[in-house]
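QA checklist item 7 of 12: single-chain prediction sanity check.
[x] sequence parsed
[x] length recorded as 260
[x] structure emitted
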Amino acid sequence: MESFGAFLKREREAKKVSLEEICQATKIRRAILEAIEGDKLEVLPPEVFVRGFIEAYAKYIGLDPEEVIYKYKEWKNGSLTKGGSFYERKREASKKYVFIGIILLMAMMVLFITHLKQAPMDRTGEATLQRSQDLQQDVSSPNNLSSSSPAPSQRGQILPPSLNDGAQQKKRPSPTQQHLIVLEAIERTWVEIKEGSSPPFDITLYPGDRYTRRAPSFELLIGNAGGIKVTFDDRQLGPLGEVGQVVRLTLPSMDRDDSQ
């Protein structure tokens, strides 16, 4: 039986549409489109967002979104009933994470044991250095001690600030302006966030969740525009879209793209 992802890929190639075209038109990341065509359910966001992505994909290549969603549900239910590759990949991923965790734990134990062995040696070296300094102080000349004290006429003297201080302060670059963004979830909403030049990451917010970040700029890909409120620099933005609609925002330039 043909998988759902293979079906979408076949239809797309039959219409001679590239993944890059769909990515540009729908504002959906190429990695997500490849995961949908590859039936990699374990790396996809929550179900409500996946359906929105599939609808946008189907519309762009000229398929009936309702029929495509029905086919997706039918294929997924059949795959789960038969214990398909989704659970197999889940088990394989779990085994891999357990193995990595064991390796990290062993590495931490080795570092801890090495630190314990090295600590007594460090204390011995510090004690030897302290005894050497004490001996040097004992043989120091009293004249050296008196010469190290400041002259009475210099005590309490306030020196004028260096003329170079102002120049140094002027040379210091001004910090990059930071903007504050607050996300408040009304319904379950998946959001991909890119802060400045940092790589993007995604989160899932549930009703009542509040998420706050500071950065020079933000790029947001919101999977459920009607399920979230966005406040930028203490100013709440207006309605972003309908429930289930995928929207991209760029702040502070306030560019906005609707994928549906």
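[x] summary fact logged: The chain is about 50% helix and 20% strand.
[ ] second reviewer sign-off
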